[in-house]
Amino acid sequence: MRLNLKIWRQKSAKANGKMVDYTLNEVNPEMSFLEMMDVLNQQLVEWGDEPVAFDHDCREGICGMCSMFINGRAHGPMTGTTTCQLHMRHFKDGDTIVIEPWRAAAFPVIKDLMVDRSAFDRIIQAGGYVSVNTGSAPDANALPIPKENADMAFDAATCIGCGACVATCKNASAMLFVGAKISQLSLLPQGQPEREERAIRMVEQMDKEGFGNCTNTGACEVECPKGISIENIARMNREYLKAKIAQK
Amino acid sequence: MSGKTQSGLIKSSIGKKVFMGLTGLFLCLFLAGHLAGNLQLLLPAEVARDQFNAYAKFMTTNPAVKVLSYLTYFSILFHAVDGLYLAWQNKKARPQAYYKKDDAANAGWASRNMAILGTLLLVFIVIHMKSFWYEMHFGSVPMYASVEHGELKDLYTLTVSAFTQWWYVLIYVVSMAVVGFHLWHGFGSGFQSLGMNHPAYTPILNGFGKGFAVVVSVLFAILPIYIYLTSLN
Asked: Is B106 a member of any domain?
């Protein structure tokens, strides 16, 4: 199949970028979206052009590295899918595909389609961990955890930190990500000693990074490749509010 | 974890959302009360005049109602200032817009336009309060002697004559549509901001909120239309 691509090209963080048109003639519908990008880059290299820089790592939908805003949607038109798991069979011969980087003040563009998502790392560093060394895995039943809590914590923990929530949110808010990370630990016994402090620290860091505020549109949970629910944002609001009121 | 945390609740993003939710939901209660009072305008003219004016006197003089009014003024101002500040921050959080963004793919229209709907409402509130609230409190509304309630300010006649102008009716009807869309998202969103989200209750609450939005805006909009149509006879 033949595709027209409109891709954001930007030489460096400081340079001005622009949309550039490319045509790709022999795209196999069985290719993944990233393989299609590889084919384009190979062609660009052969022509002596600079290949399009984009993030990717596992290509199995579990690492959270691939990004790309495709035809106005984070990770493209399919729900519950990362860009690496999106296949060209979902596009038609002759389609024009617009490909842009995540757009947020807190995610500055490094080059072309790559953005700097280290703001997420700094939020995790602010409190998204358990300080105590937990040692090796405990006996299965030594630490009782209600099934519901284990399930909710697991659902929150499936967040791969890709940033699709920020990218799609009209306010570039990171609250689905931070909500998931706070929820995950607040639901488990290991997270209890630092529960309040964690909520305060992570929210403060999130605000410092310049993400927008949540207006509860729910766009993030639709675009999240892991289907994380905005229930986690409500839980974060609760956790933060309780922690702030109890703070000494 | 070490080092001090500093910022106050209101400075944080979540704190601001919580206050948006609290003031917004209080204003929903206010709207329900305001609507119940205004529905007296649908009574036959002779009954409505005395009853509505006596009600207006009670609403402007009763000390308990006064407390509620000040809470309402505060809520409107706080909700507006906080909302505009949040909208400005949100704008700043994405300095470069997308070349192509499919907004409708994942969020409702009302939820994406709360700031513009709210700004329109603020303009409406200024017009509305100038027309009736200011006239009642500081203007010169004519007095008359009613049979049952003694001397009363004739807010009823002021109201009824205001809505004999078609363009004024139009402003109100359009504004009530704006109220409807704002509440369509706002009611449920308020609870979510307060941290209330439950797999069983949230859908019910959101459904109720949408029903509330439709009923409140439609009933409010009926009043100016009713008064205008009656004035034609």
From this structure: no
A118-246 maps to which CATH number? 1.10.1060.10
Q: Where in chain A is the domain with CATH 3.10.20.30?
A: 3-110
Q: What is the ipTM of this complex?
A: 0.93
Mean pLDDT of A142-157: 94
Give the best residue of A215, A217, A230 to mutate against chain B (max B CB count within 10 A): A215
Residue of A16, A165, A192, A217 to mutate for B, most B C-beta atoms under 10 A: A217
Q: Token pair of A28, please?
A: 């196999």
Predicted confidence (pLDDT) at residue B216 exceeds the cutoff of 80: yes
pLDDT in tens, B27-58: 999 999 999 999 999 999 989 999 999 999 99
In-domain check, residue B4: no
Cross-strand pairs, B152: B144
Query: What is the location of CATH 1.10.1060.10 in chain A?
Result: 118-246
* CB < 8 Å from A in window 90-149 of B: 90, 92-103, 105-108, 111-112, 114
Q: How far is B90 from chain A (nearest CA, A)?
A: 5
- Among chain B residues, CA nearest to A170: B112
pLDDT band with cut points at 50, 70 and 90 for residue B123: very high
> In CATH, what number is assigned to the domain containing residue B191?
1.20.1300.10
Identify whether the C-beta of residue A197 lies closer than 8 Å to the C-beta of residue A128: no
What is the distance between the alpha carbons of residues A243 and B72, in angstroms, rounded to a whole number?
Answer: 29
What does each C-alpha distance from A20 to A8, A50, B57 come to in angstroms?
Answer: 6, 12, 68
**C-beta of residue B112 within 8 angstroms of C-beta of residue A217:** yes
Q: List, in sequence order, the alpha helices (H) in B109-162.
A: 109-112, 114-128, 135-137, 155-162
Instruction: Name the token pair of B172.
Output: 């109100």
* CATH of A3-110 among 3.10.20.30, 3.40.50.2020, 3.40.630.30, 3.90.930.60: 3.10.20.30
B4 touches chain A (CB under 8 A): no
Global pTM reads 0.94
Containing structural domain, residue B31: 10-91+114-232
- Residues of B with Cβ-Cβ distance to A238 under 8 angstroms: 195
- Determine the Cα–Cα distance for residues A37 and A105; give it in Å rounded to an integer: 26
Partners of residue A197 in chain B, C-beta under 8 Å:
1, 5
Chain B residue with Cα closest to A244? B9
| CB spacing of A71 vs B112 below 8 angstroms | no
Look at residue B191 and tell me if it is in a domain. yes
Query: Positive or negative, the Cα torsion across B95, B92, A232, A143?
Result: positive
With 0-12 / 13-18 / 19 or more C-beta atoms within 10 angstroms meaning exposed / middle / buried, residue A166 is buried
Quick check: is B101 in a domain?
no
Closest residue in A to B84 (Cα) is: A213
